[in-house]
Backbone:
């Protein structure tokens, strides 16, 4: 069975259910192409943080509900996330994912296309077999729509030195915010605690997702490859600019432009020069403040939830997200 | 509005509903990436035969049912089909599709990945919004599973001179048979005429799909590029062997092997030499007999359906499929 990320050791109940979700995903993966099956299983068991299924499970704990159903829906959420990662790696030509070679790098783009498609189907099957009604499927399809729109929008603004923080926020809303929102929504909605509670949970999830992605982008400027498990800043060479750089461009455009205008031809020295300028510009701190703002909104939302053990866990977990180092 | 293929001129009712299905698909396509939106719209309106949505609509006419719902579900079926074509063209490196440049050739594999994903989502949204219950979604996800498994299985048997007719049939069952089966099933099932009738329709659809794919593969050996709208026999260079060649290999292996063993390096002369050998081997006629066999099974199934106008149309349409020249 796939190992659950060590961060869940202090939450044995969630750790157990996450392990069951991973096992269920693995049970659902059997294609006639052994290379693809192995590639997917390897990626599933590569030790992602499982934040999305964990939030799904936690938001389902405010009401007594069939845990098997919730474990399956958490599995569906993680499967959708993994499918989007596999296809993103094709588009971005990324060679490293979850501290190991990406599927597109190891097996080629053709295998990666079908591997991602296959996981979309597994997600689809899990939802169709475990969701209590068509509403969950409708919400899920809307989220998939917004995830793709975020990715597609990002493609159109590559190498754009004038990208605004607002455009960035709209992109990460689709790319990350909506899937966190859905995870929390599905957990709450399927636990039958009512649509109002589900909407409340969805809003909290959105703020968590935005804070998480901003922090993830900050780490590109404060971490090294080894810590981080994917090539630091290779987004920069691909023209995908995140919030620390976008903010630095507003104050240090003259010094940054000559490096960035080399686009894909940027050398490691160029990239690290930009990294240094961004660090010195104070944009990392500004971005941290922005992440803190979304975290505060999430915590304020959590504070309003009924006093139950899940609430405490959600508060601890969400606070930890802002202090993570990788 | 997208133009409906001329083959439907003699079926005004279906022609009108197909046009509405295409319009509904177009209404659902709006991404923040204009290139992707245009690419998808161009492919949707490129004049595919629309056989799958047409069968879906025809099998829904045995019972009075909300036509708007059926038009939407027919749209979902065509959207799923188009999504798989876009991703297949990435994997196969195909440059031509529906008589025009494929999305991957024109916009690159990265755009094509998201374009296909986006259409999966549109399909998913249409189903979630118009299906009457989770059952349709479950059947749909099982079909998507089998479609992918067919594609994946095909990848593993490339350049395999020992591919058997049975393996071929199992691959086209997934690749084509299941989507025709689903189209007929959804039409019947959602028209509320009962699960028994839906299963009957599904079986007929499977036989139609198998006959259709075999004939499609025969055309590779009897048509020219211009007639056929995609590079004739470029499957051969990619090592994807279809039934006329598989049958010819059983009787003419010595003469065929030296050409095929060149794999991707086959010249046009090699390909046409193989084409000639296959034609002379009598395998085309054998393959036609096989297609006829599946068509007969389909027609026998149709004959058992209630005597209604839709039955006559289905019989005419299915007979025409075997005499088509492109």
Residues:
């Amino acid at each position: 069975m796939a190992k659950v990320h060590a961060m869940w050791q202090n939450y044995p109940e969630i750790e157990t259910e996450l392990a069951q979700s991973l096992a269920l995903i693995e049970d659902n993966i059997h294609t006639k192409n052994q290379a693809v099956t192995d590639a997917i299983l390897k990626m599933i068991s590569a030790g992602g943080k499982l934040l999305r299924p964990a939030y799904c499970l936690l938001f389902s704990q405010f009401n007594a509900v069939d845990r098997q159903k919730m474990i399956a829906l958490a599995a569906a959420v993680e499967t959708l996330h993994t499918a989007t990662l596999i296809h993103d790696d094709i588009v971005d030509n990324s060679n490293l994912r979850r501290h190991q070679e990406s599927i597109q790098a190891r097996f080629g783009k053709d295998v990666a296309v079908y591997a991602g498609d296959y996981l979309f189907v597994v997600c689809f099957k899990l939802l169709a077999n475990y969701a209590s009604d068509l509403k969950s499927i409708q919400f899920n399809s809307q989220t998939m729509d917004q995830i793709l729109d975020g990715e597609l929008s990002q493609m159109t603004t590559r190498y754009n030195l004038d990208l605004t923080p607002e455009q960035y926020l709209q992109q990460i809303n689709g790319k990350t915010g909506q899937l966190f929102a859905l995870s929390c929504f599905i957990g709450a909605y399927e636990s039958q605690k009512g649509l109002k509670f589900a909407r409340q949970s969805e809003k909290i999830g959105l703020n968590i997702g935005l804070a998480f992605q901003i922090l993830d982008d900050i780490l590109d400027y404060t971490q090294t490859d080894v810590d981080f498990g994917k090539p630091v800043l290779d987004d920069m060479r691909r023209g995908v600019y995140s919030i620390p750089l976008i903010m630095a461009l507003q104050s240090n455009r003259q010094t940054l432009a000559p490096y960035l205008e080399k686009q894909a031809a940027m050398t490691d020295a160029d990239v690290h020069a930009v990294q240094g300028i961004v660090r010195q510009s104070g944009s990392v701190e500004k971005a941290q403040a922005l992440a803190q703002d979304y975290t505060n909104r999430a915590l304020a939302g959590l504070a309003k939830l009924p006093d139950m053990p899940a609430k405490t866990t959600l508060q601890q977990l969400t606070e930890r997200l802002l202090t993570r180092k990788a």
Q: What stands out?
A: The mean pLDDT of chain A is 90.
